[in-house]
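Quick one: histidine kinase from Streptomyces caatingaensis, structure tokens please.
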Amino acid sequence: MKGVRAPRRLLPRGLRARLVVAFLLAAALSALAAASLTFRQARAAILDRARDDAVHDLRSQVGSLAPDLPAEPGRADLRALALQLDRAGGSRGWRAAAAYRGGEPVSATGTGPVVPERLRAVAGPSRTAVVQRFHHGGVPWLAVGLPVTRADRPGEPSGLVVYASFSLAGQERDVAALVAAARAGALPVVLLAVVPALFAARRVLRPVRRLRSAAEDMAAGALDTRIRVTGDDELADLGRTFNTMAATLQADAERLRTMEARARRFAADVSHELRTPLAAMTAVTGVLDEDAASGRLEPETAEALELVADETHKLVRMVEDLMEISRFDAGAAVLEPDDVDVGELVGKTLALRHWQGRVGADVPAGLRARLDPRRVDVVLANLIGNALRHGGPSVPVDVRARAEGGRLVVTVTDGGPGIPADVLPHVFDRFTKGDAARTRSEGSGLGLAIAAENARLHGGTLTAANAPGGGAVFTLTLPLDPA
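--- reply ---
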């Protein structure tokens, strides 16, 4: 089955690349906006200047020619006026025409200039020049309609209207040249923006990199890490917050380490001090056990002695567990590996505790491993004893061993109710018991913690899980031949 490809990311993942891209986009948009604004203003200025110049020139020419016209100009007079205006157009090359009292415009050649109907309708009754831009044959044109006032009565329309139209192709070429220049100038601006973009990104990301490096150092255990803070911006505030957090964590960690060291020292000292009186108590209860067995003690006394002896043995085991865990804490636990037959080791563990009839063993013949037999016996005894206690007397317990990939894998399985979900993550923690409702138990709460420490001492692991069909499964994994 082919894997599904992850969708491609359109944006760069790194913050530095994103800052540079954002800076370049801002520069490109700014250059585009500036070019667009410049184009609009330049285009408007060019066209407005062409309009104003055309109106000024036409008014000047009409002002010099109109007084020579008769009061009631005829068609020939209008044609002569248009001809003189065409000649005066010069390089502008306009085409002129004249109309009197709403008549048709008369040109010098008989084919008048292109005059939009709207312009004619507006220019007739108007007293000022009227202009209109339009397209003719795919080319932009400008048309001017100029009403002529009477010479003897200034400001009063004479009924004569002069029209002139000319092409704006030259102006459009100038505008196109401006557009090309703006486009050519925008690209260097964007390319030059790369340098300040990289500089700005580096300046912005420098405190971020320092903060990341400091966080990595703290994650590695260097709680005395601090960063140098400069400035008063948001990143500087973040740096100060980080330093405050680091100082608080360091103080809390030192306080916790001190408390933990004192607790471990206390447990070690108490365990050491209890060994001597417990040895004496064990010896005395042993002598009294012999008297009880021979019938020299009253039944009530013998029963009380049995209770004291059982509690003394539990206390001895608890002290031994505390001493063992203290050795692990102090780093004084020593591994004494030997070449061991795993089947024989499992058999001895079961035989010493009289578990042969209650525990099934499945170990291949000839399976050998180099390990510390005493410590592995402690691990197996804790796992099997835990399974027998919590699984119940009628629940089978199975021990299986196999070699997988150069490692020894031993599983201890029971058919009991399994490990509660809230206990499972903490099953190897110290003083954790599977049944919180029981105030008294045979265990000290250290057995599984000691088993896990012995597994780690071998370079292996010990895990716990619930089987799909019910019951708990503990898996011990050790190297067959540790280095």
